[in-house]
Amino acid sequence: MDTTSAPVTARSDDGRSFVVADASGSAFVAGSLVIVTADERRQLGLVEERSETSPVRLRGRLIGELAADGIDTRASHAFESGALDPVDEATVEQLHATTGAELEVGVNLTPPGGPARLLPKRFNRHTFWCGQSGSGKTYALGVVLEQLVAHTALPIVIFDPNSDFVRLGELNADAKGPTAEALAGRDIRVLRPHGRPGSELRARFLDLPLPSKAAILRLDPVADRAEYNALVHLQDVLRQGELEDLLPMLRNRATEPGHPLAQRIENLAVLEWEVWAGEATAVTDVVGERPDATVLDLGGFSTPEQQLVVALALLDDLWERREERRPVLLVIDEAHNLASPNLDSALAVAVRERLLQIAAEGRKFGLWMLLSTQRPSKVHPGIISQCDNLALMKMSSPVDLGELGTYFGYAPAALIERSPWFRQGEALFAGGFVPTPSLVKMNPRLTPEGGTDVGVPLR
What we know:
Strand content: 15-25%
CATH superfamily of the largest domain: P-loop containing nucleotide triphosphate hydrolases
Shape: elongated
Largest sheet: 11 strands, mixed
Structural class: alpha/beta
Distance between the termini: 48 Å
CATH topology of the largest domain: Rossmann fold
């Protein structure tokens, strides 16, 4: 489909970017893919900015040189004068084949349209996913997770505080095609606080490192030095038992009625939490088996502290075993619950600090994260700054959009600025996991969404 009504001529001085001095009369907009023909070469380019001045000016980046056998994304060339033409569907397919974009998640909203695909191999980088309430963020994330589970061997762990993904192992009645068939054969496990035997969501206190045990008990190594030191000296004993065995040990060692550490445990009612594994299987054991997907239904716990215990137990275990280099994608929905810069309890801070460590150092060990939230300000900047992939849905706040622009320079500012006008289910994908920054209308889900909106009662 021809998107221009007048010849458009571009220039590139550096072989990486191009400019058009006068694009008046053309229909190229930010996000348009173009073919640049100059010096007997054809190169693929992306329009990143269209001015509103007269004459209309364009700026963009060169993606690679087109050849009969593919697109060389490592080669681009400067030129004095090149003709810009709209890209065709065959070239887009060539780009997908060259880059390995195989996960079909939606439809491109810029000409020539066609399927929008992500690169599975580039989920080996951290991903930031954001959109305001009502944008379709959770539904769209489910579309991507279905593709990953169906078409890769990458194990996924989903921290699910609102039970949105607990039905990932089920198929809609009308689901069909290769992705649906693949999903039906995958090992998808859902762990719940009150699940049936074998599917309980549990943690094991004795497996936690000393700092994490102390965080659960709100112990500071200096302010509570006596109790902390008692815990230090009980480490060898604790390896033979569980948390409930700690109170008798403390009482037997006490020279006075009631050991302070025992009193702390009783006062915090930690033993009453249903999160402790006891004889049940711990979350670390299940994830250690590397099912195709493990959904942690965190919302069923009676206290938020128990959600944090599960998260900390699993993150600590994965970090402890990082040298095994067994890849896993950690999908953290409502990431502000675990990664907010404003968390202040010892347990919440311990979880956030572990996430910061994984964000900074986990990639080389195969510990990759996808963090989903409504606002970037709700997630610690040290984590956002490590994300190489961005999925942005509707977001109306100028402050939030400005913040995203500072973190994700690879996403064209003109595309980020369109976010307030996205319809439900529309998204901007940018970064390594997409061939080029793309505006996308997401595909329908193949599996039911666990937590849907409550409708307004009507008369």
